[in-house]
From TrEMBL:
Pathway annotation: Metabolic intermediate biosynthesis; 1-deoxy-D-xylulose 5-phosphate biosynthesis; 1-deoxy-D-xylulose 5-phosphate from D-glyceraldehyde 3-phosphate and pyruvate: step 1/1
Residues engaged in binding Mg(2+): 145, 174
UniProt protein name: 1-deoxy-D-xylulose-5-phosphate synthase
Cofactor descriptive note: Binds 1 thiamine pyrophosphate per subunit.
Known cofactor(s): thiamine diphosphate; Mg(2+)
């Protein structure tokens, strides 16, 4: 890779001529495919953003200028161009290069991201701060068409209209969210794309008018007129009417064209949207053909595009997917909602079977919650399938629109607990706390794949809000013979022994079984209880067990604060039961990237660490 080898630190790209730049783009693509095929990562979005990132690096000076990526999953070329190329062997691994921008990783990463639709708000903050502090740097936010379906983007645009100094918003439009993009804004972008033919004409008119003594006034007049001529001159009218200049569309794989438009953009005194057209997966045929599959991928074979490790057993998402389809067959009042995660949540199967009862609302979790509340208020049974960390976006909507009205919305919460390589932004470690505190909310978690099926059936028929949380990855197939009927607020005793009683939540039951066995090997007896319900708590079982044991241990893959363990502790205290309690969960910290096994070991949530700690605690009694 002759050209890429010359790029060792920020701003090296500026020494290249036009031909070398095009060669560099090819070499970066090859580098991305070669590395991500080994480590896994967000391939398709990065392949599409190569030239776009290069153009930004040619126009900016890093780290002085500020580049803010939306979601941040497409920032790999930026990392390569800012001295992090050699760390790509460790991408998304424990202690390695993050898959998202990280201020702690480089001075060239201005803002941490991972969740969608934040970049315009953050960028606007940078731009306003620049003015107040009397500084001088460019501020550029890069947001995808998918991320632009999130409400925060509109709130920020609305706010950006007041800005009198330059702030560039690059809209990277590849017609895709993870799957096809949806909604009215996406249709609007499609219309803008077809306005491409007018672009030269439009920029010609704009720049000629700008040169006239009162050119800016003439442009403003045209913007104010109701004439249909305006549509011809100003295709991005929606932005222009909000007081934000629109430039584009421009071919996002043509560096020269992008530089030309960016040179115009930096002259605008205010917020300016530069509409860039790219192809997701560009340059690697399997990713061009299947951009959703290669959005985020595990290691794959470059030649065939096939994953190196074939899934042997169902994961929880597969179980949810097939049970939802069956429930849909049996009950026409069940409807499904996703916020742009039809693939990841497994709702694709439901969508294919019942397209009229399926809603992809875009990356709009807050809206999805209230929309589900509306469906429920009219007698339907909505299931909102969502990743745990993304549901954080809907906190007030769950309180205000669902729980206060006691509406029967089922929250099918996937990726609960530690998720692994995506790191701290994506760990689903807060849901038990923030959901348990809400009056009227029922919170449950299955111990294995059969229990997920039973709980889902139970939840959709329950007359109130239910949160059902399950984890990323292979569904546990142990404890198959324990299938006591689901009953509100009732937990399930697995092993009835003495001395120590271990209460575990959902996914952590697999670890709890190992802890039980390890304790046995070390000569300790251990009763094992599958909590099933984090709320309401099974106080009957808890109190009875506490009175019969010397020590209670709780195990959850959630932060300890406000989690299951603290509920158990509080209930025992209120009842005046003095049994010793050890809580196992996530201490007050964010958990970095790594495999789930590595992370559990690092935070003391693996079977061996839990066993050791229980023994230490028990021996002190
Ligand atoms: C709040 C939130 N919801 C969902 C996601 C999952 N997610 C990550 S990328 C993505 C699609 C983004 O599409 P776009 O912005 O167009 O970027 P592209 O991948 O097409 O480059 C989604 C839904 C997220 N990161 N944050
Ligand atoms: C960037 C993003 O938010 C998603 O692409 C996420 O990485 C998907 O995670 P899963 O691989 O768990 O579906
Ligand atoms: Mg997109």
């Amino acid at each position: 890779m002759a050209i890429l080898d010359k790029i060792n630190q920020m701003n090296d790209i500026k020494d290249l001529n036009s031909q070398e730049l095009n060669l560099l783009a090819e070499e970066i693509r090859q580098f991305l495919v070669e590395h991500i095929s080994v480590t896994g990562g967000h391939l398709a979005s990065n392949l599409g953003a190569v030239e776009l990132t290069m153009a930004l690096h040619l126009i900016c000076n890093f780290p002085k200028d500020k580049l803010i990526w939306d979601v941040g999953h497409q920032s790999y070329t930026h990392k390569i161009l800012t001295g992090r190329k050699n760390a790509f062997d460790t991408l998304r691994q424990f202690g390695g290069l993050s898959g998202f921008p990280k201020r702690s990783e480089s001075a060239c990463d201005s803002f941490n991201t991972g969740h969608s639709s934040t970049s315009i708000s953050a960028g606007l903050g940078f731009a306003e701060a620049r003015e107040i502090l009397g500084e001088d740097y460019k501020v550029i936010s890069v947001i995808g068409d998918g991320a632009f379906t999130g409400g925060m983007a509109y709130e920020a645009l609305n706010n950006a209209s007041r800005l009198k100094t330059n702030f560039i918003i690059v809209l990277n439009d590849n017609k895709m969210s993870i799957s096809e993009n949806v909604g009215g804004f996406s249709t609007h972008l499609a219309a803008l794309r077809t306005a491409e033919a007018y672009q030269d004409f439009k920029s010609g008119v704009h720049s000629s008018l700008n040169k006239l003594p009162y050119g800016d006034r003439v442009i403003r007049r045209i913007q104010k007129t109701k004439s249909s001529l305006k549509q011809l001159l100003i295709p991005g009218m929606m932005f222009e009417n909000l007081g934000v200049t629109y430039l584009g569309p421009v071919d996002g794989h043509n560096i020269e064209d992008m530089l030309r438009i960016m040179r115009e953009a930096v002259k605008v005194n205010g917020a300016v949207v530069v509409h860039v057209l790219t192809e997701k997966g560009k340059g690697y045929t399997p990713a061009e053909r299947y951009p959703a599959k290669f959005h985020g991928t595990a290691a794959f074979d470059i030649e065939s595009g096939q994953l190196k490790k074939v899934k042997e057993k169902a994961d929880y998402t597969d179980v949810f997917s097939s049970v939802m389809k069956k429930i849909g067959d049996q009950d026409p009042s069940v409807v499904a909602v996703t916020a742009a995660m039809a693939d990841g949540t497994g709702l694709k199967r439901f969508r294919n079977a019942f397209p009229d009862r399926f809603f992809d609302v875009g990356i709009a979790e807050g809206h999805a919650v209230t929309f589900s509340a509306g469906l429920a208020a009219q007698g339907l049974k909505p299931v909102f399938a969502v990743y745990s960390s993304f549901l954080q976006r809907g906190f007030d909507q769950i309180v205000h629109d669902v729980c206060m009205q006691k509406l029967p919305v089922t929250f099918a919460i996937d990726r609960a607990g530690l998720v692994g390589a995506d790191g701290e932004t994506h760990q689903g470690i807060f849901d038990l706390s923030y959901l348990s505190m809400m009056p009227g909310m029922t919170v449950m978690a299955p111990k294995n794949k059969w229990e997920l099926a039973a709980m889902l059936r139970w939840a959709v028929n329950f007359e109130g809000p239910v949160a059902l949380r399950y984890s990323r990855g292979q569904a546990y197939e142990g404890l198959k013979n324990y299938h006591q009927k689901i009953a509100l607020g009732k937990s399930e005793k697995i092993y009835d022994e003495s001395q120590i009683a271990l209460f575990a939540v959902g996914n952590m039951m697999e670890t709890a079984v190992k802890v039980h066995d390890l304790l046995k090997e070390r000569g300790y007896d251990c009763t094992l209880v599958n909590a099933r319900f984090v709320k309401p708590l099974d106080t009957e079982m808890l109190f009875e067990t506490a009175r019969e044991h010397l020590m209670i241990a709780t195990l959850e893959d959630n932060v300890i604060k406000g989690g299951y363990g603290e509920s158990v502790m509080a209930a025992l205290q209120q009842a005046g039961i003095q049994t010793k309690v050890e809580m196992f969960g996530i201490r007050d910290c964010f958990v970095e990237q790594g495999s789930v096994e590595q992370l559990r070991r690092a935070i003391g949530l693996d079977a061996e660490s839990v066993t050791e700690q229980i023994i230490r605690g028990f021996d002190q009694i």
